[in-house]
Amino acid sequence: MKTPLRVLSTLCLSAFLVACASSPNKTLGELPTTQYSDLDKLLLQASQKNDNQALSLYLAAADLAWQQNQALRARKILESIDLSQATPAQQIFAKTLEAELALARQQAKRALKALEHPSFVHLNEMPLSQQIRSQLVRAQMYQDIGQPLTAARERIYIAPLLDGQQAFNNHQQIWDLLTSLPRVQTKDTGEAIMDGWLALLRISQAPGALVQQQMNISQWTLQNPSHPAAQQLPEALARLQQLEADNINSLALLLPSKDPNQGVVNALRNGFFAAHYLAQASGEHTPTIHIYDSSSISSMDAFYQQALADGVELVVGPWEKNLVTQLAKRSQLPITTLALNYADSQQQPPQQLFQYGLAAEDEARVAADRAWADGMRRAVALVPKNAWGERVLAAFSAHWQSLGGELLATQHIDRPTELAGQIAELFQLRASEQRAKQLEKTLGTKLAAQPARRQDIDFIFLAATPQQARHIKPTLTFQYAGDVPIYATSAVNAGAVEVDPELNGLQFSEMPWFIESDDATRQHITHHWPQALGSMGRFYAMGADAYQLANQLQQLSAIPNSSAVGLTGTLQLSPEQRIQRTLYWAQFSNNRIEQLKGVQSD
Question: Is this structure's pTM higher than 0.85?
Answer without folding.
Answer: no
